Amino acid sequence: MQEPWANIALAVLDSPDPHAARAEIRERYLDAITRLIGDPTQDRRFASTVICLMTGFGEAIRTLGLFDGRDLDELVEYYGAIVQTHIDAAKAAT
After folding, report:
1. Lower Cβ count inside 10 Å, N or C end of the chain?
2. What pTM did the predictor assign?
């Protein structure tokens, strides 16, 4: 199954126009996550951090095979808590 968080880099790097792909994907993800978590900051710092964490997580699992053999529920709880701190920080900043 394709994992959108792990395919971001490939979508940019394999594009015929990486600069345009980067701009389009960046805005699509930033807009979606900003709305989803209610990031009130002008620079969308909380949304950017969530995207960075999720992209890194997706790449590490897919490319490096990190967390192979780990219980999925345990992994979601562990990593989800890290991401949640930034979602909560966005809500606190409003």
Report:
1. N
2. 0.86
